[in-house]
Design goal:
2 domains; mainly alpha; Arc Repressor Mutant, subunit A; 10 helices; 220 residues; elongated; Tetracycline Repressor, domain 2
């Protein structure tokens, strides 16, 4: 192959690679735009108003163009749910308390903060009926929830230190999550007179639950 042929081949190869990467970049950008549009529609219209047509319109696409990236509404719900879960898991990984009980207290405070400061992301993570949402008990027992797995490690540590009774670790972790989620669902339904009352009752219930796990006659 002469030098001119090599040069032409190399140019064509580079052009092909550029076209390939440009296509991949374009697909990722479009999916990101659709997800941003879906979040905006969810924030303004709620789950009931989250339709393919509305999301496509918000993203500046036709419904058919949106279907090239998300096959159906279920895939879109899964993406929204995963975005919320990823945000929550990043928060959980950032908790630095070394004491296991203090870590669990910080976890529930972070949960409260997430619910109040990022309500739509929180709701997408924990309330959206996404088909891919993790289910009790198998997904949690298998470690498919990093946040629950981290909580279970602290519960096991507290049990090993004699600070919690020897109850099933997964049951404790799920009960702790259920306490928090139950209070947030009541807050979303406006069952509290104020956010101040909600936060006070939430924190009191979490403290009471953690205290109930201590061995009889033990206090800290």
């Amino acid at each position: 192959m002469n030098p001119g042929t090599w040069g032409a081949w190399g140019h064509a190869r580079r052009a092909g690679l550029c076209t390939k990467y440009s296509f991949v970049y374009s697909v990722r950008m479009t999916k990101s735009r659709i997800l941003s549009a879906a979040k905006a529609v969810h924030e303004s219209a709620g789950f009931e108003g989250l339709t393919i047509r509305r999301v496509a319109q918000r993203a500046g696409l036709s419904p058919m163009a949106l279907y090239r990236h998300f096959k159906n509404k279920d895939e879109l719900l899964n993406a929204l749910m995963q975005d919320g879960i990823s945000a929550w898991e990043a928060i959980v990984r950032g908790i630095r308390a070394r004491d296991p009980v203090k870590w669990l207290e910080a976890l529930m405070e972070a949960y409260l903060d997430f619910a109040l400061k990022q309500p739509h992301r929180f709701d997408a993570a924990f309330f959206l009926p996404a088909p891919a949402a993790r289910r009790f008990p198998d997904d949690f027992a298998a470690g498919r929830s990093p946040a629950i797995a981290l909580a279970m490690a602290r519960i096991d540590q507290a049990k090993a230190d004699g600070r919690f009774r020897d109850e099933p670790t997964l049951g404790i972790a799920v009960a702790l999550a259920a306490y928090g989620q139950g209070f947030v669902s009541m807050q979303r339904a406006r069952r509290f007179a104020s956010d101040k009352q909600f936060k006070a009752l939430y924190r009191a219930a979490q403290r009471q639950f953690l205290d109930s796990l201590k061995p009889s006659g033990k206090s800290e």
